[in-house]
């Protein structure tokens, strides 16, 4: 991603020049503190909130200091500079950092979501929707180079649509303002995350007609990652963290939609519970929540296929270079 790569390059240089040491474990009253940051607050990350709300981290002897740092570039910078220990962000971030020549690369160690989380929303009902009908329309997309946009373009190309030539593609709207731009009249179609897609549908201002997650296939869309040095020095903590995440994944897999919604609703105080339930149901039915934290070769290949198709991948990276599955495999046993 050109814009993100530039930002990460600056962050990396700053981190090097500052001579920042890798973070070590912090003990507090018999527990180990882990500083965790997510890239955005999203129902898409339901298993993470389940791990927090159901006490799975505490069961593993961890105290999690949790925050949201909006933007993949910003959360990666926080991780590189040692402000946080673990980040929940797209796996592509590790590839961008690696391609900057990082001496202490970011390593993916546990997968949380395994599909794209966006949906195609139309302004009007579209009976018997066919992807070819998008040709010639005004399409309000996501930010260039971001994984949502790359997954969206990957899907469109699979359907025989050239996003740059066959659509009037709008990509100059900030992420947070995309739903409002659509409801105010911009675009015939829009690519949206939940719960915005469901909210717009409930308000009668749009219609969810397709899932980019279903169409783009499985990939390590959102993962937990740390600096390689942190993982090496704190392997026991990383294992406990991964154990807690897998407990949450199994809990989500086995529980009903209302139970999951009840467990995470406190993280979405301004969202109607019916909307939370609808979003959880949609993501659960399409298999967006990973059922174990392991990142496999096929998923890693698909991630790089998506990046390559978008022109955002300089060179392919072997899974073993940026993925450490040992913690996930042990947790899964």
Q: Give the H and E element order.
A: HEEHHEHEHEEEHHEHEHEHEHHHHHHH
Let me know the CATH homologous superfamily of the largest domain: Periplasmic binding protein-like II
Question: What is the arithmetic mean of pLDDT?
Answer: 91
Q: Any idea of the CATH class of the largest domain? A: Alpha Beta
Number of strands: 11
CATH topology of the largest domain: D-Maltodextrin-Binding Protein, domain 2
- Segments where pLDDT lies below 50 for 5+ residues? 1-24
The percent of residues in helical segments reads: 40-55%
Separation of termini?
36 Å
Number of domains: 2
Question: What is the C-alpha radius of gyration, as a whole number of Å?
Answer: 19 Å
Per DSSP, the total helix count is 17
Q: Could you tell me the strand content as a percent range?
A: 15-25%
Shape: globular
Helix/strand/pairing category: alpha/beta
Q: Give the biggest beta sheet.
A: 6 strands, mixed
| CATH structural architecture of the largest domain | 3-Layer(aba) Sandwich
């Amino acid at each position: 991603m050109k814009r993100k790569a530039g930002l990460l390059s600056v962050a990396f240089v700053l981190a090097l020049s500052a001579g920042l040491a890798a973070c070590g474990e912090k003990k507090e009253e018999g527990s180990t503190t882990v500083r965790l940051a997510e890239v955005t607050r999203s129902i898409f990350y339901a298993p993470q909130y389940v791990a927090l709300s159901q006490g799975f981290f505490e069961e593993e002897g961890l105290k999690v200091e949790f925050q949201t740092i909006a933007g993949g570039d910003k959360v990666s910078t926080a991780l590189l500079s040692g402000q946080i220990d673990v980040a929940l962000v797209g796996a592509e971030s590790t590839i961008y950092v690696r391609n900057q020549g990082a001496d202490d690369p970011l390593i993916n160690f546990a997968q949380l979501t395994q599909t794209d989380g966006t949906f195609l929303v139309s302004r009007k009902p579209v009976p018997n929707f066919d992807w070819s009908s998008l040709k010639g329309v005004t399409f309000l997309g996501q930010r260039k180079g971001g994984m949502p946009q790359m997954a969206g373009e990957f899907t469109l190309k699979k359907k025989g649509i050239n996003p740059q030539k066959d659509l009037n593609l709008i990509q100059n709207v900030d992420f947070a303002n995309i739903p409002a731009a659509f409801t105010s009249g911009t675009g015939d179609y829009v690519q949206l995350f939940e719960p915005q897609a469901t909210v717009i549908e409930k308000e009668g201002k749009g219609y969810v007609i397709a899932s980019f997650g279903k169409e783009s296939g499985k990939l390590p869309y959102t993962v937990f990652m740390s600096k390689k040095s942190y993982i090496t020095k704190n392997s026991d903590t990383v294992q406990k963290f991964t154990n807690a995440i897998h407990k949450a994944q199994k809990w989500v897999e086995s529980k009903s939609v209302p139970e999951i919604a009840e467990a995470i609703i406190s993280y979405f105080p301004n969202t109607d519970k019916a909307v939370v339930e609808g979003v959880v149901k949609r993501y659960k039915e399409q298999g967006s929540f990973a059922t174990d934290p392991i990142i496999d070769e096929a998923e890693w290949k698909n991630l790089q296929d998506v990046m390559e198709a978008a022109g955002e991948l300089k060179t392919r990276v072997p899974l073993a270079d940026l993925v450490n599955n040992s913690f996930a495999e042990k947790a899964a046993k």
